[in-house]
Amino acid sequence: MIAAIAVLPCWVMAVAGFGLALEEYSQLRHPVALLGATGVPHATAFDVLGFVLPGVLAAFAALAVFGVGSTKAPWSHRVGVQLLFLSGLGFAGLGLFPLDPTDLEARASQWHASAWLLWEVAFIPGALALGAAVAARDRALAWLCWGAAGIALVTGFTPLLPAPLAQRVGFAAWAAWFGIAAGRWPGRA
Q1: Alpha-carbon Rg of the chain, whole angstroms?
Q2: What's the rounded Cα separation, in Å, for the pair 125 and 146?
Q3: Closest CA to 87 of 124, 35, 134
Q4: I need a labelling partner for 62 at 20 to 30 A (CA). Which of 19, 87, 93, 133 fits?
Q5: Which spans in the chain are helix H?
Q6: Has this prediction a pTM greater than 0.90?
Q7: How far apart (Å, rounded) are the C-alpha atoms in residues 175 and 35?
């Protein structure tokens, strides 16, 4: 459960700390990925602490906290856990494949975009599926799952917020979901 709880603080501290350290960086105007982009000072350290570590923690939490202890779990639970695991790997991939800000069409930027897409499209149905799996036992937990999926969907695929803010809200909802859901999860360790 510690892994699930650590996802959000790890990500927030990395974004805030490296954002303060990078001259002229604005949390309101620049994407998070710029902190770990090719050629940016301390980019590798940010990629490890801001993307890879939270992603690995989330992937581990998907298996350890929400994971299936039995093959008798409903399909929505089993599939949801697998998708959450992939979402964590996708988030880690954001740091493993840093953005190239000088060429957004470069192979590195394409891999970064693919990692983002994996994170997003795995988390949304994963959280929806887990919500369906627990709906009969815990409506509040189900709504938490569905709400986090909705936030990720809206911030990732609609222009309701400026892109840098939408990205942070989506990432924060994903990261916070792990800690909050882990605290309520039935049969948690």
Answers
A1: 16
A2: 9
A3: 124
A4: 19
A5: 2-21, 43-46, 53-64, 75-96, 107-134, 139-157, 163-184
A6: yes
A7: 18
